[in-house]
Amino acid sequence: MDRFFLPAAALLLAAMACAQVASIRLESQTFDEGTHLAAGLSYWKTGDYRMNPEHPPLPKLLCAVPLLFMNVRLPFEYPSWSQGNELDFGGQFLYANNLTADQILFPARMVTIVLTLLLGVAMAWWTRRVFGAGEALLALAFLAFDPNVIAQGRYVTTDLAVALFSFLACVLWADALRTPTWLRVAAAGLALGLALASKFNALFLIPALLVLTLFRWPGWKRVALLIAVAYVTLLVPYIPDLVRSPALVPHAYSTGLAMLLDQDQHGRLSYLLGQISTRGWWYYFPVAYLVKTPVALLASTLAAAVLYVARRPKLPFEALALAVPAAIYWCFCLASHIDLGIRHLLPAYVLMIPLAATVVVRAAPKWLPIALVVLLAVESASIYPDYLAFFNWPSGGPSNGPRYLVDSNIDWGQDTKKLKTWLDARGIHEVCRVYFGMAVLSHYGIAELPLPANDDAAGRANLDCWAAASVTPLYGLHVAKDPYRWLREKQPVAKIGYSIYVYDLRKR
Asked: At 117, is the secondary structure helix, strand, or coil?
């Protein structure tokens, strides 16, 4: 197995990258990408963190790096900058610039794809070193073919970055606890700081690493080094903010954290199983996990749990570095009132995958890992190129997705270009449309008319058009009084990327 490890791992990583690059070129911006990208570039250009403080800056800074060498400008002349209106600022940046939105987005998205590849390399390297080559290849195959990882690893967002650095923080701290050299402790501290600078949900690492420390105490000096390196690393992306306003905690960081805690206290609109709530549901993420996780990964996790109980395969201490943080992160998710999507589970996914792979390889029949990889590859290929909309076949597949979830689980505004292709193929030049997203439809040559609501009986009676509706507002989320219930009762003639439903409302 060792002899074939490198070529097999390279092939898996190449397959994942090809799927990501090929599919992302077909998608317009998702809801948050313009905001994240414009904010990141504004941090580089001005050192001003007014845009998008609710997320730490590191992933935004990284994704904006290619734009530093491109002919793009920030729309400071618009009121959105002085008002701190991040959505408008992001839209003006993408659609009123020297380059097209696609030309701006693609190199920035490539940064996230590179981070996804780094996650695959890190998982394969560490799993092979700790558990073995077979375990590492199975874990890498699970990662590389997972539609959720492929989807979220292509966007200018924070979710993949925090998953990468959280994984590194956990496994490098486990290495440091087993062999507590100063270099290993410093590496774990660096990864912890990068995770904290990527997204606020990385705060779960503080109790997670503390619990791991209780199993193998490395001494106060090494714990102090971990904290010091993590703290300094966290401060680096905030240097301009610290220069402007010196403090132990950067002003932008404390502001963003306060915003997150306020959102969690008051809740945010979310959708689950046909219901809409601002307080969320404790079972939101378990349901999302069950319907959005490929069958092969669900089966591997279940098989790993059963096999571990039945056969008790011997696992090293490092297995705790996966199991304990994953369990703690799940507890955070169950308690959260911000139920926005499966993407928030990525830090748990990347910890659970190598653990499940290891148990399956060590305790299952030899044919099971091969069968699981083949099944996962088939599942992944079946959803290409619409990875964001993946739902497993027991849930009814992507066509059945809105029964369970909407928003970033299926519809993030990403399918405008696909709609344009579908309309052009049929010679349709104008649609009645309700859209969830931030892409400017006229930028893609789509002329649109408004779509009447339930209470506009006359407007509905006079409709004579093709209609296109994003499933998020179609199913009543982020719009008042479920205004498109009347349209939901009709049968769509097409489902573009599974996120836009097309209806023929022409008069015959």
From this structure: helix
